[in-house]
Amino acid sequence: MPRIMAPPPSGEFSIRLTKPFTQTPTEKIEIIGEPNRPATIKHVTHVGAANQTIITHQGTIPADDVKELLALVRPLEGLPTNPDEDVYGLDTRVVLSTFEVQWDNGEEVEGAEAPTNPTEENKRGFREVVESIRALGRQRARERTS
Predict the structure, then answer these.
(1) Cβ partners under 8 Å of residue 53, min gap 6
(2) Nearest CA-CA partner of 60 in 33, 95, 28
């Protein structure tokens, strides 16, 4: 009789940042975990001629930082998204997937504002999220795996 796999915990989340917005990524940061627990972070960069050299670092984010990060990204829900254009001007895509929120600034998202130009306040909030994710990538993903 085949084993039945348990579904992932309902509180599991993933946050993914890719740069640039539309072309083949040269930088990727992915954070996966559960609220109130440490999370894993993986930071991948593509360098060299034609970006063929891939460097991967990984690490752990402490539970307190996870809690702070989730509070920071929560307001992204409902912000304008646009699959055709980088409306935030950072050439960066952020995909947020939690039990409560599904948001991607590079896709049309149900419940998000129609593809319009975000306000300056929206842009500041998005920039703060991007800077925080990149800082976590630099600070916490230190163990080189490739």
Answers:
(1) 46, 47
(2) 33
